[in-house]
Amino acid sequence: MKRKVRKSKTLLVDGPASVELVSGEAEVLSATFKKGDKVVIRDGKRVPFEVTKNTTFNLLIAETASLEEIDGSTIPTSWEIASREIASMKKPNTVMVMGEVDSGKTSFCVYLANKALKRKLNVAVIDGDLGQSDIGPPATIGFCHIGTPVRDLFELEAEDGYFVGVTSPSSVIDKVETKLADLKNRVLGTNVDFLILNTDGWVDGEDAIRYKAHLAERVMPDIVVGIQRENELDPILSTLKGVRTIAVNCPLTIRKRDREQRKILRQLSYKKYLKGAKVRSFSLNWTRVEGTFLTSGKSTNTERIATIKELLGGTNPIYYEETPTAVLIVLRKNRWVDETQTEMFEEILGKRVTVTREGEEEGLLVGLGSEEGRFLGIGIIHGIDYKRRVMKVYTPVRGEVSSVSLGQVKLDEKGRELGASQVF
Fold it and tell me: DSSP string of 117-157?
């Protein structure tokens, strides 16, 4: 359908929808939107089209999509002030963006990137929001260079990154801090003079305050921008020493998403990075398995296996592996032991014991890496043949794979989350 919008108005479009500009001119987060340009808006996303000339749009919208026309701009004045202040700083410049879930962090990153491109700067973005990642799949930290104006970070392809394996940083704080700091240093070594680092939405509570403060200490940005509705980021911003901080407003028109809508956005991202996937087989003898001690121990201790068999009532485990501090036991699908039995195993063996069943690994999200440690993409475990020591992975990655990193998210082949798993 056609929609005419007058100058100095903003058309807000909630996806799923497609928007094409037929005549006139508009801006999307400081990126010019002109005749013939088209934007596809995902379910759960809202895009503001700020009309700078009387404009006609061609709209294709789903039943669940919506439109709203408002006066003026949706960009807070504080964003423009912050952009000018950041532009006055020395180069190269690293800007870390903080804010709670659905505060407008990604929109602000897009806005800053477009402003920097207008100043002819070499721009890159690191996406450290594990749960709502736009650059790279969920559960990863991704980055890319930006050479042309952008309206949605999801349009971009990750050039490299790190697989973390979870969608919240709370259980892997040190890993996230280390990887973000390392990636920041690597990106600045590629002739980038304006780097934007987006962070996750975990900001509430003492643990979150300590995490964000330590993250800023490790990454060492030149400036931290906190997006807030009221003063919810003050406890974090006030703890940051030796770094410049700016507090900006959350847009009044920001769309709040519920847990289910955020899952749908992650599903779309998983599907994007699993497109064209096929099942590949990887030998556990030649492929590094990270995120677990699987393949790192010994499985030839016949005395131990005899002890395990006795504890299991005469049943042999289909796989057994032991390191100096831990034991992995894999049982057949129709067998199981409870927590009390596992504790008994640990007491007798004197080590931490992990017990799982054949097939429990199916659906586990994994990250694939090269020999040099470069992130190649994601996959889903299709199964493990413990006897042949072969792991089957559903993945679009082609070519040589040297490492498989195990995550804690379970998916089906359509990218739908089935829950969390600590099978290993």
Answer: HHTT--EEEEE--STT-SSS-TTEEEEEEE-S--S-GGGSP
